[in-house]
Amino acid sequence: xxxxxxxxxxxxxxxxxxxxxxxxxxxxxxxxxxxxxxxxxxxxxxxxxxxxxxxxxxxxxxxxxxxxxxxxxxxxxxxxxxxxxxxxxxxxxxxxxxxxxxxxxxxxxxxxxxxxxxxxxxxxxxxxxxxxxxxxxxxxxxxxxxxxxxxxxxxxxxxxxxxxxxxxxxxxxxxxxxxxxxxxxxxxxxxxxxxxxxxxxxxxxxxxxxxxxxxxxxxxxxxxxxxxxxxxxxxxxxxxxxxxxxxxxxxxxxxxxxxxxxxxxxxxxxxxx
Length: 273
Ligand SMILES: [Fe+2]
Ligand SMILES: [Fe+2]
Fold this sequence. Notes:
Elements: H1 3-6, H2 21-33, H3 55-89, H4 93-119, H5 128-138, H6 143-167, H7 173-201, H8 205-227, H9 234-261
This protein binds fe (ii) ion (2 copies).
C-alpha cells in the first residue's frame, strides 16, 4: 500500500470539523478502555465451564465450547482485516485516528481467543457464511457500506451474543473475555454510528440507495450465518431453532431501526426471514 494512502489529508483551514467530535470522543474512550490479554484471569479461573458428570457428556460439552470459541476467533480475525481496511481508506483524520484503536482492539481480541482456544483443547469448524459476510464487507464499493455493515450492524448485534455466552459461562475466563468485548464492541458501534452520520450527511441518493442494495444482498447470508450450527452444536441448534429465529428477527429489526435513524429509506429492505 502506498504511504500517501496512510496519510490523512490535512483539514482545510477554517473547515468545520465539529461534526466529527463524536468520532474523536470514541477515540478517547477507546484509549481509556484498552486492556491487555494478560489482564484476564488465566490460571485463576477455568477457561470454560467444567462438568463433573460422565466423561462422554463432558467431552460433548467441551466440543460445544470449543466451537463457540472458534466462531468468535474467526469473527475477530476477520474484524482485524476490516478494521485495517477502514483505517486505510477513511479520508477524515479524526476517523483514521479512531481506527488505529479499532485495529488494536480486534488484534487483541484475536490474541485472547487464540489463547483461550488453546486452553480449551484446540479449534473446531469454521462458519462458511461468516467468511462470506466478511468478504462482502471487504469488497463493498463504498466506505458508507463498509461502516454500515461492520460497525452499525454486526458490531451492534454481536453484543447480545457476548452477553448470552457470558451468562452461560459464569466463573470462567470465557465470561470475563465476553464482558470486556461487550465494552469494546459497544465503543466500535458508537464510533461507527457517529461516523456513518457524518458520511451520510454529504452522501447523495445514489450512495444511500447502494447501501440499501448492499443490505439486501447481505441479509440472506446473515440469516444463514446466524442459524448455522457446526456438528458439535447440531442437537442444541435443532432444539433452539425457534428461539434462534425469534432472536434473529429482533436483531434484524434492530438493524433496520438503526438504518432508519441514520436517515436511510428502509422501505426497500427485504427482511429475508
Ligand atoms: Fe472484536
Ligand atoms: Fe469489534
